[in-house]
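Our consortium's second objective concerns turning raw sequence data into structural hypotheses that experimental partners can test. To show how far this objective has progressed, the report includes one record in full. It was chosen at random from the queue rather than selected for favorable results. The single chain below, 145 residues long, was entered without modification.
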Amino acid sequence: MANEVLVAIITVSGSVIIVAVSYFFTKRLRRESEWRDSKLNHYKVLLSSISDLAVDNQDIDAPHRFALAMNPLALVAPQNVVEAMRVFHDGVKVSSENRDLEHHDQLLGKLLLAIRKDLVMKQKDDPLTFHYHLVGVPSKKKKYS
């Protein structure tokens, strides 16, 4: 009888442990997925706001949307992405002396590579061959005077 009770206790304990471990790992995976989705959404908003800046800085609301997209990312993005965003911003802001298309695209490429690294893309990127430029659409909103 003692052996039967011991076997029952071991069986129940094993079942409880398996359920607890499964719950823990499932919860962790769900949190990681939600975190990744949140960061991806932040990155989409950032790239959309950068795209708004792509057409000669004509849209007066574009810098505001860019700041609203960029600043919250400092909370969720890793340091290399935050640094790439800062360098990109410093290189493309209106007061920058290095405002040419090639320089802009180089800074944008570095920012995109940092974002793609943070998102753990399945395919590894080659920084030497990765080139990208934004496609902007002229704004129908007010323009700078």
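The partners drew two points from this record. Residues 35-135 form one domain. The mean pLDDT is 84. Both points have been shared with the crystallography group to help prioritize constructs.
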